[in-house]
Amino acid sequence: MAENDKSALKEYGNRVRTFRKEANISQEALATFAQLYQSYIASIEKGDVNIGILAQQTLSNTVGVKHYQLADPDFPIPPENVLRENIRRYITARNIDPAYLKDKFPNYVKYMDELLQSGFLNEPKTTKEIAEKYKSEYELEITPSRIADILSRGTRKDKIDIIRSACGQRNRYKLMNQKNNS
């Protein structure tokens, strides 16, 4: 990739970060609203990934601007109150939990660690089953893709066996035996 291409990625990433920070939301909140992975948002902001036009459109729709305005360094970034209202309208229309806009961020990772310690994953579970446990145990909505993301990062990735299904759908996750963790 040419150096000027990398520069464009970094400029775009900086623009996304500036919009996000002006809206006073976390990467995790933006990822939730745009229904993307938090790690993907981080990669975009660092300029490490070349995203497609549909992802650009999703991000711009989330903050209430056109995709070309999000990328345009001469387009003025709306103030926080305007961005947050745009985001509120966007997430309301998509039935996404507005708690992220109220600065009440559910700590999904903390709850995952609690589930791991509880023995819930001593038997293989699908991400759908884990999402149902989040809802019943913690009264939190979480997407199966977010669960897969949490289980594949940090110290959890070394503690979880992924039992792959034949069709690539419905993988199951199981806590490794303690003797395998040493």
UniProtKB/TrEMBL annotation:
Which GO molecular function annotation, any one, does this entry have?
DNA binding
Name the Pfam families on file: HTH_3
Which branch of life, at top level?
Bacteria
Chain ranges of the HTH cro/C1-type domain: 16-70
- Kindly give the SUPFAM superfamilies that the UniProt entry links to this protein: lambda repressor-like DNA-binding domains
**This chain belongs to which protein, by name?**
HTH cro/C1-type domain-containing protein
Please report the organism this UniProt entry assigns to the protein: Pedobacter cryoconitis
